[in-house]
Design brief:
By secondary structure, the chain is α+β, with helices and mostly antiparallel strands. It has helices spanning about 1-20, 35-55, 80-95, 100-110, 150-160, and strands at about 60-65, 70-75, 125-130, 135-145.
């Protein structure tokens, strides 16, 4: 009986040790900041207002950390393609954490760039990443102004609208 007890104790001890090795040392949680719906709406609204004040009808898309649409607004009198283009611009800026127009240079420098085959990818100028501190948490893109540089001016105005909250 003593040998059986010792054997069972050894098995239980070995099983406990194996479980301890398999389990993580301690559970950890992530703390992160994200762009709120109110912030995304303020950015999009300001971007449209800025372009409208300059005589341009645009659509604006704000995407979140994972490229998901947070806000998408179609400006009055915009073309049917502007919603899709603003999404692609914003998605590109978020994915690569750079202004969407920078992708044109990257593609010229490397025509075999694999990213060119991603869904929702574009080299069109008109989107900027949105940072909280130094971390890119979202992006905003506009489409409809004559030339992507004008779209970019509008999205920059949108970001600037809530810049004090992006710290």
């Amino acid at each position: 009986m003593t040998a059986s007890f010792a054997r069972l104790s050894s098995i239980a001890l070995a099983a406990g040790f194996a479980c301890a090795l398999a389990a993580p040392a301690s559970a950890q949680t992530l703390t992160r900041k994200d762009l709120s719906l109110d912030g995304a709406l303020a950015i999009a609204t300001q971007a449209i207002a800025t372009c409208k004040a300059n005589g341009y009808a645009v659509s604006v898309t704000v995407v979140g950390r994972n490229g998901e649409v947070l806000v998408q607004l179609r400006g009055d009198g915009t073309g049917p393609h502007t919603m899709e283009n603003s999404l692609k611009k914003a998605y590109t800026a978020r994915t690569f954490r750079i202004a969407s127009g920078e992708m044109e240079k990257r593609l010229k420098d490397n025509p075999a760039l694999g990213q060119a085959f991603l869904t929702n990818f574009t080299t069109g100028q008109g989107a900027l990443p949105i940072k909280i501190g130094e971390e890119v948490v979202a992006a905003v893109g506009a489409s409809g102004a004559p030339g992507g540089q004008r779209d970019e001016v509008c999205v920059k105005a949108g970001i600037d609208k809530i810049a004090d909250q992006l710290k």
